[in-house]
Amino acid sequence: MSDHNSASASKTAEPSADKTRGILTIAHGKPRYLRMARNLALSLKQHAPDMPRAVVTDAPEGYFDGYYDVIIPHDPSYGRNVEQKLHLDLYSPFQQTLFIDADSLLCGSLHPIFDQYRGKTFITPGFEYISPGSRDTHWKVNFEKVFQAYPISKLPKFNGGIYYFEAGENSRKFFETARGLLVKTQDLEIEDFLGNGPPDEVLFSIAMAIHELDTQFDEGKFMRTLFGLSGKLRLDTIHGGCRFKKNGEWVTPAIMHFASFGACHPAYARECLRLRAHHARHVVRKVLLWGAIPFRWIFDSLRWRGISIARSMKR
Description:
Blueprint: E1 11-12, E2 21-27, H1 31-47, E3 53-57, E4 70-73, H2 88-91, E5 96-100, E6 104-106, H3 111-117, E7 122-123, E8 128-130, H4 143-149, E9 155-157, E10 162-166, H5 169-180, H6 200-210, E11 223-225, E12 229-235, E13 242-246, E14 249-251, E15 255-257, H7 266-279, H8 283-314
Parallel strand pairs: 2-3, 2-5, 3-4, 11-15
Antiparallel strand pairs: 1-4, 5-10, 6-15, 7-10, 8-9, 12-13, 13-14
């Protein structure tokens, strides 16, 4: 198993940067994932400019220059797409790590997240639980077998858009437990996520229950997805701010996770173009990017309407 924390495995643009706190993301495979990681980096530069950024990637050399401070080679032996997240502890060069999915954009400060989670072995926002006998429409798991296999009373439920963890013996044992569950997915009837391996959320949830770790309600201020969106999404990645109604409640997340079909929302492309225009060095490129926003908004709005209609018909 390769040592990703060695000097030869990573390229550091800012050798003097504080490595206590840092942001980690993963972007490999399809070009669209690499572009998403660039967009995330621009939003991080906008709202967390002093915080070191690291990316695990198989992108060509130089692709992320100026976007991330530390480039970490992607290790295929760590598994398929979502299985890679089970090895975050082996990838991260930081003492306190906040992992953020590449299909996210930052629109606020990250310091409240680090401050509230400081001292935690592993944690993510959440407030729902799965108990013996209950069912879940999103996680495809035989929960009866899970509760029979382990002495646990409930499983925390969450979206894996962000994970916070701290280096140390406790987190090492936790991640080893999560990775050990990979060989038990068939026994527990855990279905693969779109052919990309078992969902990291499910394996992390079981490992959290085993190690008696819990989620923490963030009052809608840390991270949210578009699932359950009603009405307009108000998002500004340049000046900051995000507000929308999710499942009937107003939320104001610092991190907007455009999971699944969420990346098709017109606000995602608009904000990515705004970020690229804002950080562009050449005037002509700035003008072209700003000018493209209205046309892209019209196209994506029509596409989003079609997606919304199709999803409503499936219910």
